[in-house]
Amino acid sequence: MVAREDFFERVWELVAEIPCGRVATYGQLADMLGYPRHARLAGAAMRHAPEGLPCHRVIASDGSCAPCWPEQKMLLLREGVSFLPNGKADLAHYRWEGL
Fold it and tell me: Which residues are catalytic?
């Protein structure tokens, strides 16, 4: 079992590495940390993220932005991330491949 606080810290460290103009998914972050099937816990980490972290670069596995954060899409557009006609980020083109 993963310790919640340790997991959160590790997620935040990864998110800090996502470059401008790229996105990662919650599940992708969990997988990168060796915890597949912990996407929801990665989402919880984002809800408790420290100020200044580029949280807007983390999206759902289908490319959708957080429904409760309308500014997220605008922030990604400013960084050059494009969206498909269905309103979802083009993960095939903008997904961060990691470290």
Answer: 55
